[in-house]
Amino acid sequence: MSEAQISFSDLKRILCYPLYEEEEFKKRINTLNSYGIKLLNFGKSKINNINILGKGHAAVVLKGLINDREVAVKLRRIDSKRDTMLKEAYNLKIANSIRIAPKLFYANDEMLIMEYIEGNTIRELIEEGAIDIIRVASRYILEKCFMLDLIGLDHGELSRMDKHIIIKDRVEIIDFDSASFRSVSNLTSAIQYLIKNKIYSIEGFELLREYKACICKECFKNILSALKVI
Ligand SMILES: Nc1ncnc2c1ncn2[C@@H]1O[C@H](COP(=O)(O)OP(=O)(O)OP(=O)(O)O)[C@@H](O)[C@H]1O
Ligand SMILES: [Mg+2]
């Protein structure tokens, strides 16, 4: 896949997606320039003929370079219902404090600049039938979910984690825009997803109930052994 820098004229379509706004474009370009970020034509999603890392309901995500360091730039969509990226930034910082999620480098209302995580989404691996890879990755996913449960930060979208787990040399949870401090269900949601996609089967649903009542290491370990997590 080509990693050419995106031209200035193409940036107009990408930085202010889906509606070009002159003032906003200037602000975003200035922020990117002040960090010396080059944006790359790279990724599996597309806006017109330009490749990007992802296009969601709230944002578009592009790969960038600061000198040689790879970064991901998540830009608020102009038509997003969200009026700021700072809530996601706050959640990311908390997750980062327990070494979870892409490391956040910079945030303002309009964009996040964070660590680029290389790899495939869990959905892509399921579609490829790479069940063994997912089984190995699951241990890391479940451990991270347990850690988030312990600090009380609920990701909010892990029962539909198709695009929210990236797997390669590292296994990472991304997209904390729906996260918040509330009753947590990270581990139980992740397990539901893995069972639904036939990565695991679990007999003892009782164990999940016990875990909900007492989020502790012992209950977590009991679940890992019931699932036969390697
Ligand atoms: N730090 C990152 N490193 C690499 N790729 C990333 C990173 N962050 C996001 N992506 C890619 O961009 C896609 C969209 O990102 P994200 O889910 O954060 O956007 P979103 O607008 O919140 O999407 P949605 O509306 O689906 O929640 C991801 O599925 C992933 O492929
Ligand atoms: Mg999102």
SSE diagram, text form:
Blueprint: H1 8-15, H2 22-34, E1 37-40, E2 45-47, E3 50-52, E4 54-55, E5 59-66, E6 69-76, H3 86-97, E7 104-107, E8 111-115, E9 120-121, H4 122-128, H5 131-151, E10 153-154, E11 165-167, E12 171-173, E13 180-181, H6 186-196, H7 205-213, H8 217-227
Antiparallel strand pairs: 1-5, 2-3, 4-5, 5-6, 6-8, 7-8, 9-11, 10-13, 11-12
Bound molecules: adenosine-5'-triphosphate (ATP) and magnesium ion.
Describe this entry's structure for a reader.
It is a single chain. The protein has 230 residues and is α+β, with helices and mostly antiparallel strands. The chain has two domains: 8-115, Phosphorylase Kinase, domain 1 (2-Layer Sandwich), CATH 3.30.200.20; 120-227, Transferase(Phosphotransferase), domain 1 (Orthogonal Bundle), CATH 1.10.510. It has eight helices and 13 strands. The protein has helices spanning 8-15, 22-34, 86-97, 122-128, 131-151, 186-196, 205-213, 217-227; strands at 37-40, 45-47, 50-52, 54-55, 59-66, 69-76, 104-107, 111-115, 120-121, 153-154, 165-167, 171-173, 180-181. Strands 1, 4, 5, 6, 7 and 8 form a six-stranded antiparallel β-sheet that branches. Strands 9-11-12 form a three-stranded antiparallel β-sheet. Strands 2-3 form a two-stranded antiparallel ribbon. β7 (104-107) and β8 form a beta hairpin. The chain is elongated.
